[in-house]
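Lab notebook, bench 4. Still working through the backlog of constructs that have no structural model yet. Next entry is a single chain of 127 residues. Request: give me the structure tokens for it.
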Amino acid sequence: MTKSAANATKLFNANHIKIWQTVQAIPLGKVASYGQIADLAGLPGRARLVGKALGAVPKNGWRGREVPWYRVINSQGKISFAPGSDHFDRQRNLLQDEQVVVLGARVHLKTFQWVPDLAELLFTLDT
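Model written out:
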């Protein structure tokens, strides 16, 4: 780890960083659930922490890259914000811009859920 990366890690919660890096690995046009992100980040059972971490993403992202918070939905395939709220509309629009079909508040997980293979995880999350 470089000195600047070590200093940045001290400024942020280490678990948040794991979550942000995992969310950055979600491909364009795919979604993941809060629980799935927690599991992949090595934080099983910490789905609520994922939501908290996504609310704390720095404005300029993490390590100069966007953290696509909008690709994270609940385990039922639904956007968690209240339908009709500004946050709900923003998340739905961002997903639709990536060709993710949102019907009402729901995304069809069998079609759009990110299912990474081991090689993808090892390569993407290790960098």
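Notes after review: The chain has a mean pLDDT of 90. The two ends are 11 Å apart (CA to CA). Flag for follow-up if needed.
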